[in-house]
C-alpha cells in the first residue's frame, strides 16, 4: 500500500514537472521558420532547458528512491520479518515509552504504521465539543379514557443530550427536554470519576435512584407509557428528578455486585416539595446484581425516599375551597427485581426480560391520619426476531392520597426496531379505575434519535 | 514484669510481626490486573504479560462485540483493573463508557495511565471520507474496528501492550521484552505457514456477512465482492439478496464467510442459490471450539478457509 502510494506520488511529481516544462517547449517555435542565428540560440536554450529538467528529474528520482527504500525497510521490519535482533527489539517500543526511560529509538526498529487519523483533526477545537444527540418522541392515541389528557397526536418530547468529559476528574451530562409543557433541564449533572474508595459523586439535577422505572428516560422505556404505580405514587413521566447530590459506593466481592447509594435533594417537584430551605428529600438505595450464567442474570434493589410534600385537599366548608398544606412528610419504599436472559451467541436475535417493582407510600395528611398506598407492576418483554419485540405488563396501584382507591390495568405492546436509532411501537392499554371508570386505548409511538451514538442503558 | 512493660513488649512484638508481614507482601508484587474488552486483546495481553499479569476479557469470543451489555458485573471487574485495554474505533461505544464511568476507578478512565486504546498504532482500513450519515448504516467514523484480524496488527497491538506494561511495571521491562520477542518469533513462523496455505487462492472472490474481515482478506489478497448486510447493521432486504446472488454468480464467488453470532438462515439461502457454501469462521479467540489463543485463532480460520477454497476452486 505504501509502495503504491509512493509510486503515485512519483508519477504525480513527474506529471507536474512535465506540465511545468510544457509551456517552455510550446513556446519554442519551429526552427525552419526562423533565421539561422536565432535558431542556434533557440536550440541552445532548449538544450539548456532540457538539461535543467533532466537534472531536476534525476534529483527528484534519487530523493524518492531513498524515501521509498527507507519506507520499505520500515515496512519489512514491521510486518514481514520475525523479531529483529534482540537489541533492536528491546529499544523499539513503537508507542510512547515511559517518561523515565531514555532509550533512543534505533533506526531499524519495527515501526508501526503512522498513527491512524480519527474523524476530527487533532488540531481542531471541535474535538472538545460534547457528544450531542437529539431524541424525538411522537405518540398517538385512540380510544376512551375518562382521565386522559393526551391529545390524539402529539410530539410529546424532544430531548437533547450533551455529554463529555470535563477534565481528568469528572464528566458531565446534560439532558434538555422540550415538551408541550415547556423547556426544562430534565437532567444536568457532573460525575466525579476519580474519587478514592470506589466512591462516585454526582452533583446537579438528576433522576433519583429510586427503583428502576424512575431512572429511565422516555426513550429507554420498554412500552409507550409508564406503569400505573409510577403515575400514582412516583410522579409519572416527570418522576423524582430534583437538584441535589448523589454519592454511591461499590462493594467489590466475587459473589455479588453491590452498590450503595445515598442522595439528598432540594425538592421542587410533584412528588416531593419543600417550602422551607431545610426541608430536604433523602433517597437511599441498595442495588445488587449477579450473573447466573453467561446468558442469564438477576438484578435487584431496595429504595427509600423520605422528604416533604405539599398536599392539596378539597374540604368543606366552604364547598370547593382548597386547603394547601406544605412540608408534610412523605415516605416511599420500593423493592425491584429484574431477570434477564440473552444468549451470547444469539444476542442479536433473542432476549427475554421480566421485571417487577413494589412500591409503598405513606403520606402525612393535614387533618386526618396518614394515607398509605401500595402498588406494583410486573412486565415482560421478549425479542422474537432481530428487529421485533413483544411485551406485556400488569398494573395495580392505590393512589397516594387515597390508598383504598385501587386502579388496575394491563397493557400489551409490540415494538419494531428498524435500527437502534429508531423504533416504532404499538400498545393496547386497558385500565379499570377505582371509581369504576374504564379506559380502552390504542397507542402508537415513533421514537427516533440523531447524532452521537449513546451508551445503552442496562 | 509490670503490666505496663508487658503491654509495651506485646505491642512491640506485634508491630515487628506486622511490619515483617507488610514487607513480605511488598516483596511478592501482586500481578497487574488487566481487563480487556475482547478475548483477542486478552490473549495478546497474556502473551506479553505472562505470569506478571492476570487478564480478564469482558466480551466472549462467540459474542458480537457490538452487542455487549454494560452489566454491573463488568463494572465490578473494571473497578479493580490496573489496566483497561480497548479495541477503540467506537467498537465498544455502546457499553464501555458506562463501565468506565461507573467503575469509580480513576486509573482506567480515558487519558489515564491505565487505559490503552489498542488501535492507535495499527493499520486501520475503511476510514470513511466525505459526509457521513446514518443512512450508510452503523458506520464507524474512525475506521473499521475489526483490525485485529491481521496478524501483523496483532504484532503491533502486542508492542503497544508491551510498552504500556513496561510503563506500569518498569522493573519487569526485560521480562516483557523477552515475552514479546518469543511471541513475535512464534507469530512469524506461523505467518509463513498461513501465507503458504492461502497463497494459491490469492485473488479469489468471496462474500462476508458483516464488514468484519477487511484486514484478514487484504492480508491474504482475497477479494470481497459483497456483503450479506447491504449496509453495516442493516438486515438484507429481498432485493439485495437477489442482487448479491447475481453478483456471486457473475464473479464466481462461492463462499460466504459468517461469524458464529449471525443466524445462518439468510447466508445459506444466498449460498444455495449462488451454488456456493457458508463458512463459519471465528472472528475472535474463543469464537470456535479449541481456539484459545491469538495464533490459534488464525490457525483455525486459515485452515478452514483454505479447505473451503480448495473444495470450491479445485486448486
How would you explain this protein's 3D organization?
- The complex is a heterodimer of chains A (458) and B (315).
- Chain A is of the alpha+beta class.
- Chain A contains 4 helices and 16 strands.
- The longest helix of chain B is centred in the middle third of the chain and has 26 residues, at 173-198.
- With 315 residues, chain B is α/β, with parallel strands linked by helices.
- Chain B has 10 helices and 8 strands.
- Chain B is globular and about 95 Å long.
- Chain B has 2 domains: 32-193, Nitrogenase molybdenum iron protein domain (Rossmann fold), CATH 3.40.50.1980; 194-313, 3-Layer(aba) Sandwich (Rossmann fold), CATH 3.40.50.
- At the A-B interface, helix 3 and strand 8 of A face helix 3, helix 4, helix 5 and helix 6 of B.
Task: Please name the defining characteristics of this protein.
heterodimer, A: 458 residues, alpha+beta, Porin, 2 domains, 16-stranded antiparallel β-barrel, elongated, disordered N terminus, B: 315 residues, alpha/beta, Rossmann fold, four-stranded parallel beta sheet, 10 helices
The gist of it:
The complex is a heterodimer of chains A (458) and B (315). Chain A is of the alpha+beta class.
Largest interface: A-B, 67 and 73 residues
Q: Calculate Rg of chain B over CA atoms.
A: 24 Å
Oligomer: heterodimer
Q: Major sheet of chain A: size, sense and barrel closure?
A: 16 strands, antiparallel, barrel
Quote the beta fraction of chain B.
5-15%
At CATH level 3, the topology of the largest domain in chain A is Porin
CATH topology of the largest domain in chain B: Rossmann fold
Overall spatial form of chain B: globular
Rounded mean pLDDT of chain A is 81
Main beta sheet of chain B: strand number and arrangement?
A: 4 strands, parallel
Going across the major beta sheet of chain B, what is the strand order? Answer: 2-1-3-4
Number of helices of chain B: 10
The stretches of 5 or more residues of chain A where confidence is low (pLDDT under 50) are: 1-41, 79-110, 118-122
Structure summary, number of beta strands of chain B: 8
Helix content of chain B: 40-55%
Straight-line distance between termini of chain B? 94 Å
**In the CATH classification, which architecture of the largest domain in chain A applies?**
Beta Barrel
- In sequence order, what are the helices and strands of chain B, one letter per element? HEHEHEHEHHEHEHEHEH
Question: Residue share in helices of chain A?
Answer: 10-25%
Amino acid at each position: 500500500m505504501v509502495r503504491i502510494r509512493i509510486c503515485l506520488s512519483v508519477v504525480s511529481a513527474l506529471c507536474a514537472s512535465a506540465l511545468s516544462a510544457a509551456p517552455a517547449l510550446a513556446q519554442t517555435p519551429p526552427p525552419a521558420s526562423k533565421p539561422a542565428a536565432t535558431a542556434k540560440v533557440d536550440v541552445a536554450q532548449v538544450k539548456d532547458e532540457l538539461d535543467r529538467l533532466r537534472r531536476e528529474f534525476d534529483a527528484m528520482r534519487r530523493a524518492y528512491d531513498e524515501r521509498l527504500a527507507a519506507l520499505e525497510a520500515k515496512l519489512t521490519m514491521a510486518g514481514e520479518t520475525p523479531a529483529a535482533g534482540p537489541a533492536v527489539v528491546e529499544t523499539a517500543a513503537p508507542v510512547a515509552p515511559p517518561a523515565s526511560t531514555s532509550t533512543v529509538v534505533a533506526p531499524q526498529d519495527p515501526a508501526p504504521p503512522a498513527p491512524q487519523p480519527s474523524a476530527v483533526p487533532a488540531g481542531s477545537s471541535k474535538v472538545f465539543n460534547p457528544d450531542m444527540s437529539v431524541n424525538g418522541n411522537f405518540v398517538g392515541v385512540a380510544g376512551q379514557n375518562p382521565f386522559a389528557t393526551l391529545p390524539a397526536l402529539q410530539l410529546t418530547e424532544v430531548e437533547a443530550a450533551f455529554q463529555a468529559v470535563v477534565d481528568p476528574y469528572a464528566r458531565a451530562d446534560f439532558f434538555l427536554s422540550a415538551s408541550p409543557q415547556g423547556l426544562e433541564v430534565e437532567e444536568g449533572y457532573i460525575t466525579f470519576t476519580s474519587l478514592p474508595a470506589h466512591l462516585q459523586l454526582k452533583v446537579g439535577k438528576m433522576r433519583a435512584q429510586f427503583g428502576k422505572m424512575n431512572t429511565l428516560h422516555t426513550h429507554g422505556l420498554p412500552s409507550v407509557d409508564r406503569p400505573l404505580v409510577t403515575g400514582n405514587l412516583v410522579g409519572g413521566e416527570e418522576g423524582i428528578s430534583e437538584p441535589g447530590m448523589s454519592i454511591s459506593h461499590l462493594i467489590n466481592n466475587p459473589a455479588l455486585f453491590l452498590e450503595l447509594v445515598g442522595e439528598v435533594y432540594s425538592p421542587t417537584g410533584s412528588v416531593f416539595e419543600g417550602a422551607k430551605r431545610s426541608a430536604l428529600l433523602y433517597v437511599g438505595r441498595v442495588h445488587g446484581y449477579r450473573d447466573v450464567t453467561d446468558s442469564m442474570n438477576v438484578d435487584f434493589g431496595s429504595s427509600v425516599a423520605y422528604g416533604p410534600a405539599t398536599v392539596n385537599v378539597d374540604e368543606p366548608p366552604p364547598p370547593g375551597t382548597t386547603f394547601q398544606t406544605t412540608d408534610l412528610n412523605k415516605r416511599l419504599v420500593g423493592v425491584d427485581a429484574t431477570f434477564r436472559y440473552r444468549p451470547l451467541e444469539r444476542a442479536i436475535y433473542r432476549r427475554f426480560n421480566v421485571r417487577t417493582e413494589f412500591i409503598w407510600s405513606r403520606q402525612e395528611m393535614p387533618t386526618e391520619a396518614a394515607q398509605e398506598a401500595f402498588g406494583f407492576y410486573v412486565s415482560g418483554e421478549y425479542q422474537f426476531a432481530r428487529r421485533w419485540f413483544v411485551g406485556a405488563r400488569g398494573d395495580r396501584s392505590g393512589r397516594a392520597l387515597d390508598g383504598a382507591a385501587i386502579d388496575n390495568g394491563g397493557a400489551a405492546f409490540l415494538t419494531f426496531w428498524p435500527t437502534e436509532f429508531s423504533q416504532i411501537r404499538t400498545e393496547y392499554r386497558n385500565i379499570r379505575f377505582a371509581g369504576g371508570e374504564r379506559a380502552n386505548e390504542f397507542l402508537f409511538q415513533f421514537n427516533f434519535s440523531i447524532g452521537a451514538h449513546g451508551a445503552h442503558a442496562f | 514484669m509490670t503490666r505496663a512493660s508487658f503491654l509495651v513488649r506485646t505491642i512491640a512484638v506485634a508491630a515487628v510481626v506486622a511490619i515483617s508481614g507488610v514487607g513480605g507482601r511488598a516483596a511478592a508484587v501482586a500481578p497487574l490486573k488487566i481487563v480487556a474488552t475482547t478475548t483477542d486483546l486478552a490473549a495478546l495481553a497474556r502473551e506479553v504479560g505472562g505470569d506478571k499479569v492476570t487478564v480478564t476479557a469482558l466480551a466472549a469470543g462467540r459474542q458480537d462485540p457490538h452487542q455487549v451489555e454494560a452489566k454491573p458485573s463488568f463494572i465490578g471487574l473494571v473497578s479493580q483493573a490496573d489496566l483497561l485495554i480497548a479495541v477503540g474505533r467506537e467498537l465498544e461505544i455502546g457499553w464501555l463508557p458506562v463501565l468506565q464511568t461507573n467503575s469509580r476507578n480513576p486509573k482506567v478512565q480515558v487519558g489515564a495511565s491505565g487505559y490503552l486504546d489498542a488501535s492507535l498504532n495499527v493499520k486501520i482500513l475503511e476510514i470513511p471520507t466525505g459526509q457521513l450519515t446514518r443512512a450508510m448504516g452503523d458506520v464507524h467514523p474512525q475506521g473499521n474496528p475489526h483490525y485485529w484480524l491481521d496478524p501483523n496488527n496483532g504484532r503491533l497491538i502486542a508492542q503497544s501492550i508491551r510498552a504500556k506494561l513496561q510503563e506500569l511495571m518498569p522493573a519487569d521491562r526485560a521480562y516483557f521484552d523477552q515475552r514479546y520477542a518469543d511471541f513475535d518469533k512464534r507469530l512469524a513462523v506461523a505467518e509463513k505457514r498461513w501465507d503458504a496455505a492461502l497463497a494459491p487462492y490469492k485473488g479469489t472472490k468471496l462474500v462476508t456477512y458483516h464488514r468484519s474481515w477487511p484486514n484478514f482478506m487484504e492480508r491474504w489478497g482475497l477479494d470481497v465482492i459483497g456483503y450479506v448486510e447491504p449496509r453495516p447493521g442493516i438486515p438484507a432486504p429481498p432485493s439485495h439478496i437477489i442482487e448479491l446472488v447475481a453478483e456471486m454468480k457473475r464473479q464466481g464467488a462461492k463462499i460466504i464467510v459468517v461469524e458464529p453470532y449471525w443466524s445462518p438462515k439468510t447466508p445459506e439461502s444466498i449460498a444455495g442459490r449462488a451454488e456456493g457454501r457458508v463458512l463459519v469462521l471465528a472472528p475472535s479467540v474463543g469464537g470456535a471450539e479449541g481456539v484459545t489463543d491469538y495464533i490459534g485463532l488464525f490457525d483455525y480460520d486459515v485452515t478452514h478457509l483454505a479447505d473451503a477454497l480448495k473444495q470450491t476452486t479445485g486448486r
